[in-house]
Design a protein that fits this description.
This protein is of the alpha/beta class and 263 residues long. The protein contains 11 helices and 11 strands. The strands form 2 sheets. Strands 1, 2, 5, 6, 7, 8, 9, 10 and 11 form a 9-stranded mixed β-sheet that branches. The protein has a two-stranded antiparallel sheet with strand order 3-4. β3 and β4 form a beta hairpin. α2 crosses α10, α2 packs across α11 and α4 packs parallel to α5. The protein binds adenosine-5'-triphosphate. The site of adenosine-5'-triphosphate has 20 residues, from α2, β9, β11 and α9.
Length: 263
């Protein structure tokens, strides 16, 4: 375990208060952004019951290999290393009907028994919510901190507050919040439309003592390219956006002192 911590720069969990806010998409975009910026990145897809990372990268037909008792992650086109239960199933649409502790063990194995090599960042896509499964996983891996993904409506419902409180209760660093689907840019007039209201996120997060890292728009090209397994193409087309995202993430993660190590 110590060896693993030494060969991986930062281990970052990506969490969300509920499903469908774009947590896996933002995890993938973060990986692409950091990788575009020359960083060595791995993704551990710990969203065991709804694993979508392989599909977004178009590697869902590949399978994880085991060499010398070590699991070899699958590499994406740009060299991002990925492990996911979906890369082990006979059929990717087979459901995984496991309870929390079993999922926790599986994720722990994905973490410890994988030949990650040297990485600057290992991003862990945690299951959505604040229930038993994400809790068990957060206890089984040694996170340096978490990024919380939310949608504007999520804040209204105060669901994001639950994620922040859960991380606080566990003594885990919170690097900040990424607001997904924050606005929409009109094709015709190029204007930003804040469908769910503008500027409401930052003051509410400030009250909670958490920074807003980035606001990402609703982008139909993003949906399309993710669905086609070509998120890396989105990263190439939107190089400037990715560069900005990666700088924000790196500045924040580099700035926070590591206080927590669960195991
Ligand atoms: N900013 C965005 N613009 C357009 N589409 C988006 C955006 N973010 C996510 N999506 C789309 O929304 C859908 C859900 O996203 P995703 O699978 O990342 O959610 P999730 O929070 O990880 O869900 P779960 O945790 O339930 O698995 C996907 O089809 C994705 O392509």
């Amino acid at each position: 375990m110590e060896g693993l911590k030494m060969s991986i720069g930062k281990i970052v969990g990506i969490m969300s208060g509920k499903g469908g806010v774009g947590k896996s998409s933002i995890t993938s975009l973060m990986a692409v952004s950091l990788s575009n910026n020359g960083k060595r990145v791995g993704i551990l897809d710990a969203d065991i019951t709804g694993p979508s990372i392989p599909k977004v990268f178009g590697i869902n037909n590949k399978r994880i290999m085991s060499v010398d008792n070590k699991i070899r992650p699958v590499k994406t086109v740009s060299g991002i290393k990925v492990t996911s239960i979906n890369l082990m199933l006979d059929n990717e649409d087979d459901p995984v009907v496991w309870r929390g502790p079993l999922v926790g063990n599986m994720v722990k194995q994905f973490y410890e028994d994988v030949d990650w090599g040297e990485l600057d960042y290992l991003l862990i896509d945690l299951p959505p919510g604040t229930g038993d499964v994400p809790l068990t996983i957060m206890q089984s891996v040694s996170l340096d901190g978490v990024v919380v993904v939310t949608s504007p409506q999520d804040l209204v419902n105060l669901i994001v507050k639950k994620s922040i409180k859960m991380a606080n209760l566990m003594g885990t660093n919170i690097y900040g919040v990424v607001e997904n689907m924050s606005y929409f840019v009109c094709d015709e007039c190029d204007k930003k439309h804040y469908i769910f209201g503008k500027g409401g996120m930052e003051p509410k997060l400030n009250e909670l003592g958490v920074d807003l890292l980035y606001s990402f728009p609703i982008n139909p090209d993003f949906t399309e390219l993710c669905d086609e397994g070509r998120i890396e193409v989105f990263g190439k087309i939107n190089f400037d956006l990715c560069e900005k995202f990666s700088h924000v993430v790196e500045n924040k993660i580099g700035a926070i002192k590591v206080e927590n190590c669960c195991i």
